[in-house]
Amino acid sequence: MFRLLHVSSSPRRGESESLALAEVFLDAYTAKHPEVEVERLDLWQANLPAFGFDSASAKMAVFGGGEPAGNDQVSAWEQARAIFDRFAAADAYLFSVPMWNAGVPYILKQWIDIITQPGWAFGLDPEAGYTGLIQGKKATTIYTSGVHPAFGQDFQRSFFDDWLRFIGITDITEIRFQPTVLTANPDEDRAAAQAQARDAAKAF
Predict the structure, then answer these.
(1) CB under 8 Å to 174, separation ≥6 — which residues?
(2) Are 100 and 12 in contact (CB under 8 A)?
(3) DSSP secondary structure code for residue 36 in this structure
(4) What residues are paired with 125 via a beta bridge?
(5) Secondary structure element (H or E) that encloses residue 187, with its range
(6) Could you tell me if 26 and 62 are in contact, meaning their C-beta atoms sit under 8 angstroms apart?
């Protein structure tokens, strides 16, 4: 069965603009593709492990061509692998990404740091450089923010889009609702974003 994984990084639940747009997308997508299995991953409810000393040591061991050493490293690496496997098992992705302080929520960065490992999400060749290993999959990204671009920097899209391409996902559909607070016509802008989400879902 084709699996679509929705990864949510907003803690605002029913008050979240990114989650609301994701639901619009999913409603339109499942109406057209009722056979698709939709899995939801709320990063705030996922109890993600810290990627600390043991995890980093395991990663560097793998980078060096070795294996994690000792029970703590092995356990940390196995926890990371389980989280990666859930991600890699999906056939396509929907990411709802609100802007936090010009970037992405820390919980999303934590998840990325856990799953972006050598031999899993990317490969490294001394001559060719990095190669993304998540091949043949596509993603839709929903970016929301309450800050007008003229008033600050946007590292939200640049960071996340670069990460997707780094791991090999280049078929990317983007939906933006920006700004969500300082706009003169919030209802009109929200309706336009919802229409964009529906159109994107039908073409996804």
Answers:
(1) 140, 141, 143, 157, 161
(2) no
(3) P
(4) 129
(5) helix 186-203
(6) no
Q: Report the distance separating Cα 104 and Cα 142, nearest Å.
A: 12
Find tokens 């450089």 and name the residue.
Answer: 129
Question: Does pLDDT of 101 surpass 80?
Answer: yes
Q: Checking DSSP bridges between strand 122-125 and strand 129-132, what pairing results, if any? A: antiparallel
DSSP state of 118: B
State the amino acid at position 184 in one-letter form.
A
For 22-69, how does the pLDDT look when each residue is reduced to its tens digit (9 = 90+)? 999 999 999 999 999 999 999 999 999 999 999 999 999 998 889 999
Query: DSSP secondary-structure letter at 51?
Result: -
d(CA 22, CA 19): 5
145 touches 178 (CB < 8 A)? yes
Residue 47, SS3 per DSSP: coil
Q: Which domains does the chain have, with CATH numbers?
A: 3-203 (3.40.50.360)
C-alpha of 60 from chain center: 24
Q: Which two tokens stand for residue 137?
A: 């999959």
pTM over 0.70: yes
Runs of H (alpha helix) within 33-69: 53-63
From residue 107, alpha-carbon distances to 28, 39, 70, 142, 177 in Å are: 27, 19, 28, 16, 21
Q: What is the pLDDT of residues 120-172, one digit of tens each?
A: 999 988 888 999 999 999 999 999 988 766 677 789 999 999 999 999 999 99
- Measured over the CA atoms of residue 19, residue 20, residue 23 and residue 29, the dihedral's sign is negative
